[in-house]
Amino acid sequence: MIPKRIRSVLSWAPVFVAVCDFGSIRKVSGYSMQPTLNGDLGNGADFVALEKLSGRFGWRDPERGDVFTLRHPRDPKKIIVKRLIAIQGDIVQGVDSAEAHRIPEGHGWFEGDNLRKSSDSNSFGPVSLGLVEGRVLAIVWPWHRATGLGNEENPAYEDRIIYRCRKNSKASKG
Amino acid sequence: MRGSIRSRLGIRALKTVVERKASASNDVKSIQNTGGSTWESVKETIVLCIKVSSFAYCLNTYFASTKMCVGPSMLPTLEESGSLVIEEHISSYYGNFKNGDIVIAKPPYDSQVTVCKRICAMGGEKAACIAQNSSKTEEFVVPDGHVWLEGDNPKNSRDSRSYGPVPLGLLHGKVIFKLWPLKNFGSLPARSASETTGEDASL
């Protein structure tokens, strides 16, 4: 017979899995989102809080500047964290090439903040939003770096977005 | 070393005995004040509901689920009016999809809906397709980590021929069994040669 303690742990395991599907905390690895994430990699990696419901149920339209975790389009087992630069209908210019990309329906243009060390839409093109796993809400660990992550639009991108299909809700309010 | 293990085992055995005794006395107590502690029983019921529903959720999301497939795009294999199928999700973790599997996937253009299509080519393989609007055949290599999805009814299907190869991450699960309608109950047939050409598919 299974001991009672193990049984109670087992019976709570599905609850834990289900809660992790709504939101979880994950460790960020790699350089691609420096300096926003892992800005102080020498003293340990950042842990971020994710929210996975809005993408799954479509409660909130993704906006430019949001940071998302997504499955790598070429390797579904790899999860990457990138910033959404342009949304469907926008026309965006790649970093190295002068080529302009029109973002198709249901896609987004994702880039790392550290463009030199990032494999992102500049190498694999627009990414389907179905690959988005969760939205990064905040850095929760280490304490001295803990902040919320809003959808800050980096001025460096501004001139690369040739055409904007619609404005961010924040921008239209202001 | 051996002694310490034995003593630990002894402690564990003692603990279990104590726990059992405690639970037994609890049972006696709960029998004694039935009707009195409604809050306790309500709490227990809520916890049980949470556990059962999350177990069902995990089963549905990570193991297998039923799905209603409606539409003409898979016509000889699945009914237009709707077929109830079982899809399993385990293969999407290990990525063991192969050519000819019927899969449920999110289409690249909309992350909120799912479609049911057949894998026609895996990454690295050549996909030959007749473009929907023109009659000329295009041939190209599907990129790594992508699959080429097509409906079994090529004349009435929005699939990879219009939106291109689909990343493996968008595949939800593999359709393994057909439950409804009853006359076609059973496992799904592999794609036959006549269906691939699409010559004799009548509308």
Automatic annotation (TrEMBL), chain A:
The Peptidase S26 domain, residue ranges: 17-93, 100-141
Compartments, as annotated in UniProt: Mitochondrion inner membrane
One GO CC annotation: mitochondrial inner membrane peptidase complex
Any one GO molecular-function label of the UniProt entry: serine-type endopeptidase activity
Keywords recorded for this protein, A-Z: Hydrolase, Membrane, Mitochondrion, Mitochondrion inner membrane, Protease, Transmembrane, Transmembrane helix
Active-site residue numbers: S32, K82
InterPro entries recorded: IMP2 (IPR037730), LexA/Signal_pep-like_sf (IPR036286), Pept_S26A_signal_pept_1 (IPR000223), Peptidase_S26 (IPR019533)
Membrane topology: Single-pass membrane protein
Biological-process GO terms, alphabetical: protein processing involved in protein targeting to mitochondrion; signal peptide processing
A Pfam family: Peptidase_S26
Main subcellular localisation: mitochondrion
Homology family: Belongs to the peptidase S26 family. IMP2 subfamily.
Protein name stated in the entry: Mitochondrial inner membrane protease subunit 2
Organism, as annotated: Rhodosorus marinus
TrEMBL record, chain B:
Keyword Membrane: yes
GO biological process, one term: signal peptide processing
CC terms in the record's Gene Ontology section: mitochondrial inner membrane peptidase complex
Active site as annotated: S73, K117
Pfam family, one: Peptidase_S26
Subcellular location: Mitochondrion inner membrane
Superkingdom, taxonomy of origin: Eukaryota
Domain Peptidase S26 positions: 43-127, 137-180
Keyword annotations from UniProtKB, A to Z: Hydrolase, Membrane, Mitochondrion, Mitochondrion inner membrane
PANTHER family in UniProt: MITOCHONDRIAL INNER MEMBRANE PROTEASE SUBUNIT 1, PROTEASE FAMILY S26 MITOCHONDRIAL INNER MEMBRANE PROTEASE-RELATED
Family named by the database record: Belongs to the peptidase S26 family. IMP1 subfamily.
Protein's name in the database: Peptidase S26 domain-containing protein
Originating species: Rhodosorus marinus
